[in-house]
Sequence to fold (107 residues):
Amino acid sequence: MKITVEFESMEEFRANMVPGKIVEIKSLKKAEKQMEEEPTATPEKAEKPPVVDRVEVRRALAELNKRTGKKIASELIHGMGFDKLTSVPDEKLGELMTKVKEVEDAE
Fold:
């Protein structure tokens, strides 16, 4: 079987391609509607902080304390509701690292 498709421009080609999926297209309007309905990224995935290593977070906190000369690391950890870095769950390490970067950018 051989299928030939013609597009007016590269933009039209890209607009009609659905990466990673084989889509049976019966009409152009149906395909356009399908593409509009499919989300490109789920909000849960977009909002999740990246997964980071505990050692990396510890190093970033230590460097932050050295640069500022203050105990900012413990303030950030306490602000999240934990006593020390070892009590912060792995799921929250990305959030803590994000806060470290925010403080670094503010200074």
